[in-house]
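Something for you to look into today, if you have time. What I am after is a single protein written out in full by you. I want to see for myself how the chain folds. Could you add the entry underneath, on a fresh line?
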Amino acid sequence: MKTKKWSFLLLSIILVFSLAGCSGNENGGNPVKQTSQTEQTAVTAEGQEELTPEPGAKLLVWDGKDGVPFLNEIAKEFSDKYKVPVQVQEQGAPEQMKKMKTDGPAGLGADVLVLPHDNLSEAVAGGFVLPNDFYEAQTREEFQETAVNAVTKDGILYGYPRNMETYALYYNKKLVKESDLASWDDIISFSKKFTDVKNKKYGFMMQLNNLYYAFPFFSGFKAYIFGKDNTDPNDIGLNSPEAVEAMKYYQSMREILPMEAADATTDVKTALFQEGKLAINLDGVWNIGNFSKLPFEVGMIPLPKFPNGEIPKTFAGVKAYYVSAYSKYPNAAKLFARYVTTQEALLKNFEKTGFIPARKGMENEPAIKANPMVTGAIEQFKHSVAMPTLFEMQQVWAPMANALELIWKGNDAKATLDNAVNSMKEGMKTLHK
């Protein structure tokens, strides 16, 4: 009897050591940790833990036209390093959202998507993106807080941030000094002297009937869109006393920009700026490339303080990588999303596409430092908030566009905002029927 017990014990010991030996030799000799039934990790030469791709993994990645050239390049690097084939296909964000609803469940969708953050609510509701769980701590630590918040829904981090977009002040250095942009009062004072409507010369211009660009006036007067940091659609703050004060100040600026709101289009002000007839242009970072090629030097600086001493916040848009919930190879997909958002990868992406990285500290990179407009944009990112991702936000844009036009015309700010908010509330009721 004792012999049988000893034999069984010896066999158990041999089996344990055999299993330990097998697990220690996978992944080229790197120690591997089994974290769940499907998730394995390996320790890199730098001592960092990373996911191990599933056996036979292959990936399909979707991105818009502007992101494909970089992805083709980085996909080859990733494939060479991890022996995981990566196919890149051009798909715009709207197409990605539509196709994931049908191609995802059918097993034909991408493993990795690239989406603007305002698509996140729909993607989560549709159940086709996985949380950024394994690399969550690193993402929260290494990326701009605004970017992290933008790709988080109900406290769960989903995205792997790539780049941030916002807007700030471009200015023609031949026409205006940076000292004339120290405050909004300074901008108004300069514009009063410079503006010459007959000769189509303007000191300052912005798109006037779009909440996206008008938001700094609300934030600069401590007004808000939705309560609880844009998470409570039942609390709309766009007709609060602070919002009314913001719109009164906004309305007063017609003195330096005497035109109808509908006439201050993107095309009009871009043409005026390029012709040297507009000194200060409130516009987006996506024009940095175009404005770098003009025959005069262009600067870009963050929005200055309002007369109340508040620094206004701009809206930020964040594009990020997301891992599909339908992916057969989630480990490989998460590893890829992390790989293409490392500091080295995002710097390459910037050099190739001009996308401004959402990572902290990138303004110190020589390639970025060399373009003062980019560093100015990064400074503005520090004073920005992610556009709300709530479904209810879709009911805000049109009423506010109408309200901004009416307020610019001279209509009563309080009554106009009250009407706009009532219209929003009626629209939101239809969402919940």
Observations:
- The CA atoms of residues 209 and 402 lie 7 Å apart.
